[in-house]
Amino acid sequence: MLRSNLDRGKQTIVVNTHHHWEHIWGNWGFRDCDIVAQEGLPKLAREKWDLTLETNRKYVRGEVALVLPTILVAGSISFEDDGIPLFSSKGHSDDSLSVFCRDGGFLIAGENIGDSDEAMVPSLASCVEDYRKTLDTYAGLAPRTILSGHNRAVDRRYLDKIKAALAKAEHSSPDAGGLDRKERLF
Ligand SMILES: [Zn+2]
Hints:
Layout: E1 13-15, H1 21-24, E2 34-38, H2 41-55, E3 71-73, E4 76-79, E5 84-88, E6 97-101, E7 106-108, H3 128-140, E8 145-147, H4 157-170
Parallel strand pairs: 1-2, 2-3, 7-8
Antiparallel strand pairs: 4-5, 5-6, 6-7
The structure holds zinc ion.
């Protein structure tokens, strides 16, 4: 369905925001396209593929097989014709990659925005300092709208709310709703 809605006049490029299963299973449907990801993705995806496939087998529809990216980003790259920089953005995972569409001011932040207003700080596999840097980078772009994997669309003021929640969580234990740095496998 997604493919049938794409602009046929342009090359389709898929971006994987990180290696977690619900973000890379769809690669199979775009295996004839270029797929861009942060350089750390292939190793993490290979390591977790079998386990996450087994754990989430009930969600399989049709064929699912590991399709790895064709373009790896070390720091950042830009599709300049379209004014779309992609940049490494550690936090939720060490292989997180974000996309900023200058035209329209859309920031696609993967899962660096938590799943809900009640859990706006995502689970962090990277260190808190890296995540805070990522939030600063996001703020510096002055996005109009921030899109993420599981939450609603938010505006840039949400970044300040996350920072405040992060500071609060750093001073709480995980049992009391504080930071849980363990990566979720789902
Ligand atoms: Zn994730």
